[in-house]
Structures are given as C-alpha cells and as structure tokens.
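Section 3.1: Structural characterization of target chains.
Under the original work plan, the team committed to producing a structural model for every single-chain target entering the pipeline before any wet-lab resources were allocated. The record below documents one such target. The sequence was received from the expression subgroup and is listed exactly as submitted; it comprises 231 residues.
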Amino acid sequence: MKKFAACMLVLLLLCTPVTAGADASDWDLSAPTEVTEEVRAIFDKATEGLLGVSYVPVCVLGVQGDTYCILCKATVIYPNAEPNNVLVYVNEDGIQNIYELWIDKHDKKEEVRDDGEQDSAASETNADIQYVMYLGTNDKDTNKPVFTEAEAQEQVKDILIRHFGGYTIQEASGGWIDEGTVYQEYTLVIYLSDTTEEAVHAAADELIETFRQSSILIQTNPTRTEFYSGS
C-alpha cells in the first residue's frame, strides 16, 4: 500500500500544472526531497497568515520553476483533530494551491473493516460531515475589532440560531506578522453537523458581511455522529 501511495503522489504531482503557462510535465522530480532552510523560509512566509490549520512540511516532492510541491501534515486546530496529508504548492509569491490526500483515510477505513470492530451498516447510517468555520473578528480594512468579544459572540449566536436552530462555538486567538508588525485577532471557531454545504455558505455570507471579513476558512471533515443515551 505504501508503494501505491507513493505512485499516487507522483501521479497527482505530474497531473498538476500550478504556475501560469506551465505544463504538468515541467515538474523536476530529481530535486532533493529535504526541506532545506531556503525552502522552509519560503514555506513559512507563504503560510504565516493562515489561521485555524497547522501545516508541518514533511518533504519536497518536486519543483516546477520557482514553485515547490511540499508534502505536509495538516491539522485543524480543534480538540482531538487528526492530521491529514496535503500537498502544498508554494513560491515567493505565496501559496499557489493546496490538495488534500485521502490515501491514509482509505487505509484506516479498510483496517477497521478487516478487524471486524465496526459494523459497516451502522457506519454508513451514522456517517456525517462536520463543518468547522474559523471566523476572524477584525475589520478587513482597518484590522481593528468590529465588535467587543461579548458582542461578537452574541452576533454569531444570533446568526447561527436563525440559520441552524443551534450552535457550538469555541473561542480562539490568531496572530500573524505583516511587514514586521504583529497582529492579534479574536477568533470564533464554529462547529456544525447535520447540515449542508449550501446552508453553511448561506450563514458564512451573513457572517462575512456582519464582521466585515474578506473570507472565512471552512474545513469539511467526514465523521460519524451518535446521540448516546446509555447502555
């Protein structure tokens, strides 16, 4: 399975023209796989403004011009989150693309079935999608808080109640460096289940307008849900 996974990584890399005007066959696969200090500096600069997900570079898979394809472990910042394998394409201009890989998730599902530890019918019945939204609360233009922290929570609760009939939110703090200045941002993490992508986007549209954001980070995580009431 590891050989298969390696082949799939190379195939995906070869089929992905990332830079404008470049052909997928332009990838140099003979480049060193080590994440050197130079590559790490480019990677850190490209990802320094990202909130809500931790990206840890593992190795360099290939180079296309000045763009590096880096295999990373990505972990959403919330309790008990499991890391996923992703391909992150970066150069001096920033992140060019991110692809999530599902190879490890497929392997884990097969292992569970082989061990007989989980009933497949029950698994399909309880299958769900968890949407996690990371909402910054600083104005996109002034970078100053739109509301106080208490007001921000009340605004979010009102919007979520109207869209979903309930809510689960968690407070967080984000920070980044821009031209030598360190910025801090009060952030609310929103967890949603038993809903649709369309409903999530509808709520996100209102949140973007209310909190004067340029965008909201939304993570989509396959999961299983169960309302357990005792044995």
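The CA atoms of residues 169 and 190 lie 5 Å apart.
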